[in-house]
Amino acid sequence: MFIRIATTLALLALSTQADYASAQQDLRWKFRAQETIRYNVQQKMQTKMKIGDNDLNQSMEQVMDMSWHVQSTSAAGETVMNQVVDRISMKMEGGPAGTVAFDTNNNVKSENPIINSMGEMFRQIVNQKFQVTMKPTGQITDVQVPAQLLEALRRSAAGNPGALDETSLQQMMKQSAVMLPGQPVALRNTWNSQQSVQLGFGTMNIKSEMTFIEVDTTGNAIIRVVPEISVVPKPDAPIRMTLTSSTGQGEVAFNIAQGRVAKSQLDLEMAMTIESNGQSFQQNINQVTTMTLVP
After folding, report:
1. Helix (H/G/I), strand (E/B), else coil: 293
2. Pairing of β 220-233 and β 202-215
3. CA distances (Å), origin 37, targets 146, 148, 261, 286
4. Is the Cβ–Cβ distance between 221 and 254 less than 8 Å?
5. CB-based burial label for 155 (10 Å; 0-12, 13-18, 19+)
6. Taking each helix axis from N to C terminus, what angle separates 147-157 and 166-174, rounded to the nearest 10 degrees?
7. Angle 262-268-269 (CA atoms, 0-180°, nearest 5)?
8. Distance of CA 196 to the CA centre of its chain
9. 141 close to 133: Cβ distance less than 8 angstroms
10. What are the residues whose beta carbons fall under 8 Å from the beta carbon of 284, sequence distance 6 or more?
């Protein structure tokens, strides 16, 4: 009798899970007013360059802690929140400056001016409230950058072409949410996500094909991500970059009941030719970005 009951319960559980997975799912971001959710974002990047007969390898690891403080939600599900970068740490090795490492929680000055410059730039961002308006699909329709941060960036931008500006900060915040379809989807349904990033040498466009693969045992919708990257060069840029090849794959675990990403990971490989000051060299980049919901 015990074996029969256990077997029946197991089959019932499998049947329920199969029905849950086969039905159409309404994948939507969901928030409650005054709640706070936190994410940890980690990025690891390996860069290989060939300059003449010399090989130059560089590695970079960056960790960013973010908190989303929900201010209000509308009947249509549109949410206004303050997104705050709580902490940024970075470590780079192998470049011309040697080992460069900093943590915005550490205010100790370094003897390396590059570390001080980078650390100061990122410390201006930490603890600032970016007001973001997000649709249930994850589309961010508006980003308000704090006025005091913009003033600080204007002062630091003098003589620094790589300094952050309002546009780059808005783009950074607009990429913080995974894009979802605007209607319920069944298994194997596909939709597209489009992102554009303005860089010094031009515009990088990332078009991602998103496919609903399955619902796992914890209630997460597993979404496969296949990105396609293209670059539109800026005509007057001092550096010209030509993308020769790119491949990538990723996966998102989206908690259906909670209405938020539990974890996502995106792996990218890019090969490019860079021309500057009459010289040309090859560069290969391998980048892994992981975003994890903090309990």
Report:
1. strand
2. antiparallel
3. 21, 25, 11, 29
4. yes
5. exposed
6. 130
7. 165
8. 12
9. yes
10. 47, 48, 49, 269, 270, 271, 272
Distance CA 180, CA 135 (A): 10
pLDDT of res. 172: 74
How far apart CA 216 and CA 16 sit, in angstroms, is 12
Amino acid at 274: I
User: Residue 93: in which H helix or E strand, if any?
Assistant: strand 79-95
Q: State which amino acid sits at residue 122.
A: F
pTM of the prediction? 0.84
> Sign of the CA dihedral 161, 163, 165, 168?
positive
Q: Enter the tokens of residue 158.
A: 């003098």
Alpha carbons 103 and 120: distance in angstroms, whole number = 10
pLDDT of 94 reads 84
CA nearest to 279, candidates 48, 47, 49: 49
Q: Do the beta carbons of residue 202 and residue 234 sit within 8 Å?
A: yes
Report pLDDT digits (tens) over 112-129.
766 777 777 778 889 999
Cα separation of 225 and 197, whole Å? Answer: 18
| 203-224 per-position pLDDT tens digit | 888 899 999 999 999 999 999 9
Letter for the amino acid at 102? F
